[in-house]
Design brief:
The chain is 49% helix and 7% strand. The chain has a three-stranded parallel beta sheet with strand order 1-2-3, with helices on both faces. It is mainly alpha-helical.
Length: 149
């Protein structure tokens, strides 16, 4: 297990360092990028294109992909959210990859589960994220195991 995440990363930065940050022999990757794109108000088309490139590159390397989605902060308005929010479901469908719809499910907006910045989870928030995503990750790993038999 390798955490190739970089604090503050955008989807484009993740794409740009993908080839050297994901070593040969990697069997699976959980892609959880895009939150910083939305926080910065970046064009959702750029985010989608970067995530599309990431999935394409990983699949070309025979690496299984699970996508963890994000939702746009509502302060950018409904038009931005309408463009950003469907990115993950659209890509999961297009590339036939499993999707965990919202990485921060049960944590976003819960003050006691976030640091004072209101964005990053506390240890308790991380525990909740893990508890919620774990069944999806286990299913993903079982799927990979079955495919490789």
């Amino acid at each position: 297990v390798l955490n190739a995440g970089v604090s503050g990363d955008t989807s484009s930065a993740g794409r740009d360092r993908l080839d050297w940050s994901i070593p040969d022999g990697t069997e699976a990757v959980i892609v959880e990028l895009g939150a910083n794109d939305a926080l910065r108000g970046l064009d959702p088309a750029i985010t989608k294109a970067a995530l599309d490139d990431i999935i394409k590159k990983l699949q070309a390397r025979k690496i299984s992909v699970m996508l963890a989605g994000m939702y746009a902060p509502r302060n950018y308005g409904p038009d931005y959210a309408a463009k950003f929010d469907p990115i993950y479901a659209d890509l999961a469908k297009a590339y036939n990859v499993p999707l965990y719809p919202f990485f921060l499910d049960g944590v976003a907006g819960e003050a006691k589960l976030n640091l004072p910045d209101g964005l990053h989870p506390t240890a308790e928030g991380i525990d909740r994220i893990v508890a919620r995503i774990l069944p999806s990750v286990e299913t993903f790993l079982q799927m990979i195991s079955a495919q490789r038999r």
